[in-house]
Amino acid sequence: MRTRQLELEIMRYDPEKDKAPWFQNYTVPCLEDWVILDAINYVKDNLDTTLAYRWSCHMMVCGSCGMMINGEPSLTCKTFIRDLPDKVRIEPLENFPIERDLVVVLDDVIQKLYQVQPYIIRKDDPPAKDKEYIQTPAALAKFKQLTMCINCMICYSACPQYGLNKKFIGPAALTMAHRYNRDSRDQGKSDRLNILADHDGVWDCSFVGACSEVCPKHVDPAAAIQQMKVDGALEFWKQKMGITGDKS
Amino acid sequence: MSRQPYIRPMSTTTWYMRNGRYKVYVLRELTSFLVMFYSFLMIFGLAALAASPERWNAFLASQQSTAMIIFHGLALLYFLFFQTFPWFKLAPKAMPVQVGEKKLPDSYIIIGHYVAWAVVSIFIFWLVGVI
Do B18 and B55 fall into the same domain? Predict the structure, then answer.
């Protein structure tokens, strides 16, 4: 197979030595069917063992290898060398603090995921051990797409609202909230309402739509957030008109 | 080993220059200035209508000058390209329709919006006596 010389310009940052990040260049002989992650692994294995970055599955499942590739947030395991020019700039995901080299600090969004209670909440008694919550295929179809999220946080990296205001709950966490609100087995919609309808919830989203464009799993967080705005507005008017309708 | 995460600054005034996607978004948001302009124009028009027939006729004449016709034409194009077309395209995201287990194709919802737009436009044209 043909090889191709790729100029990788990788952002480096060592918290113990550097005041600010800087770029280091590496020339990598790549095979045409390589993805960017292969090139970075080549650097780590053959050129520079000090390079720090996250990856695990190499197949778009674990969601840990997200980086800025020529300014575009993407999973490095799904970005093919053949689709890129000869010079590629690799940076850690935007909108996150840099821990070291290409590793970012994700504590903030992990905290936000906890905040939206992304699990099934039941108000009634737990079912007997030999029973289960029945769900029809039609009820599953209402949220199945949203379950595809792998928490790669690329959407946060693309979102200028999160970049400008770190209080914003943000695309992935809001999408998870919507996923459980839409789940016919869940009864926790009212528990999540305070966070979602708050200033830093869905109304901070101005529908730039970048999150959906960069999402590697086509979850479409922007759509989920707009649907939550519609749901939230309907809920508001229902309460105003005295119709108590928390039908989750 | 001490943690000292580095925070990359984000300019609050020029962030939208980062990529084409953000630029298009800002161009879309800039239509708010045109909305503001037309809101004031309507208030002036109503004030003229309330004042006297002469003032109202003068207001109408001012809107029919070549410069104003060109301005309205350009504003219409701007609205079309940065409001109508993108928002109609995005409509299926905000209001998906599920029939049974399947989602209704996006094109149905988008075409529905254009049809509704045409019906409302024809009604308004009929109301003001253009057709």
Answer: yes
Q: Find how far residue A97's CA is from the centre of its chain.
A: 15
If DSSP codes are grouped into helix, strand and coil, which group holds residue B20? helix
Contact B6 A213 (CB under 8 A): no
Burial of A125 from C-beta contacts in 10 A (0-12 / 13-18 / 19+): exposed
Strand A87-91 versus strand A3-12 pairing type: parallel
A115 interfaces chain B, CB cutoff of 8 Å: no
Query: What whole-number distance in Å separates Cα of residue A81 and Cα of residue A8?
Result: 11
In a domain, A138, yes or no: yes
Total structural domains within chain A? 2
Is the minimum CB–CB distance between B90 and chain A shorter than 8 Å? yes
Q: Which pLDDT band, with edges at 50, 70 and 90, does A248 fall under?
A: very low
Predicted confidence (pLDDT) per residue in A46-76, tens digit: 999 999 999 999 999 999 999 999 999 999 9
pLDDT band at B1 (very low <50, low <70, confident <90, very high): low
- Residue A140 contacts residue A80 (beta carbons within 8 Å): no
Confidence at residue B116, expressed as pLDDT on a 0 to 100 scale? 97
- The two tokens of residue A78 are 């799904």
Q: For residue B8, which residues of chain A lie inside 8 Å, CB to CB? A: 21, 94, 98
Tokens linked to A124 = 């009634």
The residue segments making up the domain with residue B126 are: 95-131
Predicted model pTM: 0.91
Q: Is B99 on the interface with A (CB under 8 A)?
A: no
Tens-place pLDDT, residues A17-26: 999 999 999 9
Residue of A nearest to B12 (CA): A164
